[in-house]
Amino acid sequence: MGRAEKVVLAYSGGVDTTVCIPYLMNEWGVKEVITLAADLGQGDELEPIRQKALDAGVQASLVADLTEEFIREYAFPAIQANALYENRYPLSTALARPLIAKALVETAERYGADAVAHGCTGKGNDQVRFDVAIAALNPQLKVLTPAREWGMSREETIAYGEKTGLTFPVKKSSPYSIDRNLLGRSIEAGPLEDPMNEPLEEVFLLTQAIENTPDQPEYVDIGFVKGIPTSLNGVELDPVTLISQLNERAGRHGVGRIDMIENRLVGIKSREIYEAPALLVLIDAHRDLESLTLTADVTQYKRGIEETYSRLVYNGLWYSPLKLALDAFVQTTQERVTGTVRVKLFKGTSRVVGRQSELALYSEALSTYSADDQFDHKAAEGFIYVWGLPTRVWSEKMRNH
Ligand code: ARG
Q1: Residue ranges of the domains in the chain?
Q2: Alpha-carbon span 335 to 31, nearest angstrom
Q3: How far is CA 221 from CA 24, 102, 187, 342, in A?
Q4: Pocket test for ligand 1, best of 97, 120, 125 (most atoms within 8 A of CB)
Q5: Which CATH architecture describes the domain 177-356?
Q6: Residue 66 in 3-state DSSP?
Q7: pTM exceeds 0.90, yes or no
Q8: Atom of ligand 1 minimally distant from the CA of 272
């Protein structure tokens, strides 16, 4: 008896997920493997990857174009939540996992598979995100994780694959571990494992080194409707085009690099390099528009929600009851977050330099220092008396005792 009869495997075309195919069949007695390669705008050509799985002996090799859904249903809600894990990482990799898990589960259900599989190792966050998301979407499905259990080194994995008739192109292997989608790139390992090593320029693909950025700044007006970015410089764009264009513009100015030590869910600290130009610019712009259109108490309360939301997405709880509840809160707050934010891209920075909204709560008549001021200054005195009263009483007590 094998561990499962029919398995849908998340497939990237890399060494690990390719070796998973014969391994599942030969070692774990799986009868049928169906691979699913997800297009998340990572820019890979997927037809050769589809073919590669067929060559490795799968019964069916599928490609799912998930890019639009990825941006609309995963990235945009995260922007509305200003989601930054540990205040910095915009979750570009983490956001893709629940969507891939959903595609795996749907494919398994459509093809009558009794298990799904992925090639994650046992050290990272991604295994947690897959396993928990799959359990949330279909608790009946088994999850097979060959790469977490086989205990083979890179060389042994390749040797195992070759023994079963697979061939791997001899290319100069990169020392880095890289994950990529339309939102950005995550780069780990190799020389980056020493946190004191400055990342070599070779790790970056979407962002220019400051030395090579234009000497003129570029302004971009970002239009939001209910917290969703919908236009650049007044031109309405579909979600995928908007992200692609903004990646391009911001990346050209060297905007979007992050270098951080991050706390993984599995207890390990890791050194991470990210490039996520559009996502970072959008979160910054969105947060700014909120400061114009939300009341002080909602803005401030939402910061706490955002912190919880980011941690929960990072920790693989996208499809969890708490996440659903936080979504409801965030959605309610976005009703009036509509307007335009002007950002200035220059030499590695994106700065908000203007914002505008029909729904702005900012009132020039109240905030002006000119003669047109309508704020009632006399009202301040009584307000401050009441506001400061507890402190005054406390202070008097402290002096006397
Ligand atoms: N540390 C990031 C995260 O947990 C990126 C993980 C990247 N994955 C990879 N296979 N390189 O979201």
Answers
A1: 6-66+90-163, 177-356, 370-400
A2: 51
A3: 51, 34, 30, 4
A4: 125
A5: Alpha-Beta Complex (3.90)
A6: coil
A7: yes
A8: 1
**Which mutation among 262, 264, 272, 314 tests ligand 1's pocket best, with the greatest number of atoms within 8 A of CB?**
272
For 203-221, the pLDDT digits (tens) are 999 999 999 999 999 999 9
Among 233, 240, 283, CA closest to 258: 283
Identify the residue whose C-alpha is closest to ligand 1 atom 10: 179
**One-letter identity of residue 212:** N
**Distance from the alpha carbon of residue 115 to the mean position of ligand 1, in angstroms:** 24
**What is the CA(44)–ligand 1 centre distance, in A?**
18
Distances 326 to 78, 135, 333, 377 between C-alpha atoms, Å: 11, 20, 11, 39
Ligand 1 contacts (CB < 6 A) are 93-94, 125-126, 177-179, 186, 188, 262, 272
6-66+90-163 shares its CATH topology with 177-356 = no
Active site residues per annotation:
16, 97, 126, 177
Q: What are the C-alpha distances in Å from 86 to residues 24, 53, 290?
A: 37, 38, 20
Structure tokens at 33: 């493997």
The number of residues in the chain equals 401
**Alpha-carbon distances, residue 230 vs 71, 96, 106, 240 (angstroms):** 12, 21, 29, 10
pLDDT in tens, 104-161: 999 999 999 999 999 998 989 999 999 999 999 999 999 999 999 999 988 899 999 9
Asked if 101 and 129 touch (Cβ cutoff 8 Å), the reply is yes
Domain 6-66+90-163 top-level CATH class = alpha beta
